[in-house]
Structures are given as C-alpha cells and as structure tokens.
Design a protein that fits this description.
Strand content: 5-15%
CATH superfamily of the largest domain: Hypothetical protein, domain 2
Number of helices: 14
Keywords: Glycosidase, Hydrolase
CATH architecture of the largest domain: Orthogonal Bundle
Protein name: A/G-specific adenine glycosylase
CATH topology of the largest domain: Endonuclease III, domain 1
EC number: 3.2.2.31
C-alpha cells in the first residue's frame, strides 16, 4: 500500500472534528491557516471562533480598523501576521470583489501568503494538487523516508518539497494534505511518538533504524539575546494611567504599552527614580515601587525579555491619562495583558 493511501486511511479514521473541516470557504480556510501558523489547534480554535464571530466575512475584516484586528489577535504573538491578515483582507475585498484567487500562483501574490498557505488554500478549497509542507509534514517525511537533511536548510527545503510532490495523492489532495498534517500533529509527534501502534511503522525507516528521536534534523539555533525591560506604570489619584503606542518596526508595532525604558541589567528602585520623571512627564510627587520581586522572563524566538513593572503613584492628576477600566479596549503585548490581569485584581 502506498504512503499516501496509508495517510488517507488513517485520516478517515482518526481526524479531529475541527470547525473549518466541513467547508471549502477560502476565507475560513485562510483564516484558520494563518492562526494555526502561530499556535496549536487547541489554542487556535477559540481564536478562530472569535474572528468568525467578529468578522463573519472578508468584507467585515477589511472594514475593521487595524487596532481592532490587533486586539483580536492579542496573545498569539508575531503581530506582523495580523497586520498582513488585515492588509490581505482589504486587497481581496477591493481588488477581487471579495472572492479569493483560485490558483496557487495567484494566491502567492497576496501579502503574507507563502508557499505553505497558498498550497493549503489551493488544495483544500480548489482541489489543486499542491503539497503542503509545514513543521508536521517535515517531521513525518524525514522519519518515514529516513532523510537527515536539515529541514531549515536551502537544500533540505528544496528536497522535502520535491519529495512531497512526488508522493502526494493527486486525486484526493484535499483530504491527503489535511491528513498528513493531522498525522504529524497527533500521531508522529515531536517527542515520544507511539511508534509501536503506528500504522506506518512497517515502512518507516526512522523506526526500523531507531532514529526517531534524532529526526528531523535542524541546523543550529540563532543565539538568544537578553534584554532588560522596565515598564513604568503611572497611577493618578483617580485611577488613571498612561499608555503609549509603539511606532517602531518591531514585532509589537502599533500595540500599546506603559512607558518603557531599557537597561543593561536588572536595576534597583533608586536608578528607576532617576529616569522616571524624564520618561513620564507628570506633575506632583512620585512614589516608585517594584511590582514583581524578580524579572518576568518573556521568551521570543531570538530574544528573552527580563521585565520589571514599576508602580508610579502620582500625587496630582495628569491630562492625557487613560482609566484603568478602559485599558482592555487597547491591543497590548501579551506581556502587558498578563500583568494587567493580576495587577487590576490586587490593586483596585
């Protein structure tokens, strides 16, 4: 029995009941794929439901403000995907009359749509025989065929794409592509897969050669940079604070945050007091105190943020303040959102 046939039979028996499985609506498939590039299915499904409820059509998403989209995306990280999602919605609504392009090549022209997403939409929605190759598929192919090329190398990416093309089920591409991704997600998992009960183990080279734990191969990781963030949280007598919108081109562009300054290491209250009056221009006396005893470590792909929140109690009111109860309307990094969830309950 061929590899693709084994995948299809397994999929028909074990596929999960996911909200986008029963549709060929390109908008819904596209939305699910963009969300699942950021998180696992169990976390992604609630986001999918919220997006569909808030923006039931591509026109609704296109007409939303960027701030609304970023707020809906909050917690998924890598916010450029949300900005690209919004930009693509506008293009499809305005230039395509709300109808998604139906071919892989046309889909590739859309902002934020790469090889994987274009292949997924073209195959699932329009039955175009294009193989999907994501992290799950890399792992399944590397193990089953015993390939030790690095999956993040130029040579490896090219090889696996060609291999995926050669073995795909052309006549049932929609279910096959979903099947191989599903197989990697719940059967051929990264750590400790249940190989003894795997229906593909009779042809799996990694299993036969006892190389499951070392495949797939990945080139060395980029060195992680340590950064030390100090967020100043001003509080006026009537419960107002200050938020600022990030304008740089970083991953948190256009999100809101408390006044921030970066230090070279963990610092004490005295050093914060020196900076506080310059960073937050307010009148009156300022009382600064540390909120968290030790830095909160927020891990991103290439940097770890060691973050301390400093509460600044101000004796006078300030003109441009925001009520704490209003903060939940603003899109903020998850680091800020987590702080707010604990701080509001303990302070107010």
């Amino acid at each position: 029995m061929s590899f693709s046939r084994k995948i299809l039979l397994w999929y028909y028996k074990y596929k999960r009941d996911l909200p986008w499985r029963g549709t060929k609506d390109a908008y819904k498939i596209w939305l699910s794929e963009i969300i699942l590039q950021q998180t696992r299915v169990v976390q992604g499904v609630p986001y999918y439901y919220r997006f569909i409820e808030k923006f039931p059509s591509i026109f609704d998403l296109a007409e939303a403000s960027e701030e609304e989209v970023l707020k809906m995306w909050q917690g998924l990280g890598y916010y450029s995907r949300a900005r690209n999602l919004h930009a693509t919605a506008k293009i499809i609504a305005q230039d395509y009359g709300g109808i998604f392009p139906k071919t892989y090549k046309e889909l590739l022209r859309l902002k934020g749509v790469g090889d994987y997403t274009a292949s997924a939409i073209a195959s699932i929605c329009f039955d175009e025989p294009r193989p999907v190759v994501d992290g799950n598929v890399f792992r399944v192919l590397a193990r089953y065929f015993g390939v030790d090329l690095a999956i993040n190398s130029t040579e490896g990416i090219k090889y696996f794409k060609q291999l995926a093309t050669e073995i795909m089920a052309v006549d049932d591409i929609r279910d096959y592509n979903q099947g191989i991704m599903e197989f990697g997600a719940i059967q051929c998992v990264p750590k400790n897969p249940d190989c003894m009960h795997c229906p593909l183990n009779d042809g799996c080279k990694a299993f036969q050669e006892q190389r499951v734990a070392i495949l797939p191969v990945k080139k060395g990781k980029t060195k992680v940079r340590k950064r030390f963030f100090n967020y100043l949280v001003p509080i006026s007598p009537n419960g107002k604070t200050i938020l600022r919108q990030r304008r740089d081109k970083g991953i948190w562009r256009h999100l809101w945050e408390f006044p921030l300054f970066e230090s070279g290491s963990v610092i004490d209250t005295q050093k914060v007091e020196i900076h506080a009056a310059d960073i937050v221009s307010v009148k009156g006396n300022i009382n600064v105190r540390k909120y968290n005893d030790g830095p909160i470590v927020h891990k991103l792909s290439h940097q770890h943020l060691y973050t301390t929140f400093w509460i600044m109690e101000i004796s006078d009111e300030f003109d441009d303040g925001i009520d704490f109860v209003e903060i939940e309307k603003y899109p903020v990094p998850v680091l800020i959102a987590d702080f707010l969830n604990t701080f509001k309950n303990s302070y107010f």
